[in-house]
User: Which sequence fits this backbone?
């Protein structure tokens, strides 16, 4: 049974704040990469492409964590909580909206062997 958790965290910066938000999110990467449970943690920004013209928030974190518990521990780190308080929850923050979702790669009713 896979315990991995996949997180997609999307951010909508306030107008004119796109670069500042991207840089602020990039600043979270080095310490997060030091966490043993962090498998993948990369912030990306949307670019124009004729083959992918979907809509969505322009800045997205792609994360893979070893387990749900370790993802939740990451979310409770002071650096992460401070980021959300300053940039998302504060009326003076640079982010208009954020959408954070977690996923599993396991199908429903997967009968993984017990080891």
Assistant:
């Amino acid at each position: 049974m896979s315990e991995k958790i996949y997180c997609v965290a999307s951010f909508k910066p306030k107008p004119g704040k796109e670069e500042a938000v991207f840089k602020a999110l990039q600043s979270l990467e080095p310490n997060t990469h030091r966490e043993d449970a962090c498998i993948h943690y990369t912030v990306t920004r949307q670019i124009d492409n004729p083959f992918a013209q979907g809509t969505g928030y322009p800045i997205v974190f792609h994360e893979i964590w070893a387990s749900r518990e370790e993802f939740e521990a990451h979310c409770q780190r002071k650096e992460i909580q401070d980021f959300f308080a300053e940039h998302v929850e504060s009326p003076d923050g640079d982010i208009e909206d954020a959408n954070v979702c977690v996923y599993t790669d396991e199908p429903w009713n997967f009968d993984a062997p017990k080891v």
User: Anything to note?
Assistant: The longest helix spans residues 78-89. Residues 65 and 71 are 6 Å apart (CA to CA). The mean pLDDT is 94. Strands lie at 5-13, 38-45, 59-65, 95-103.
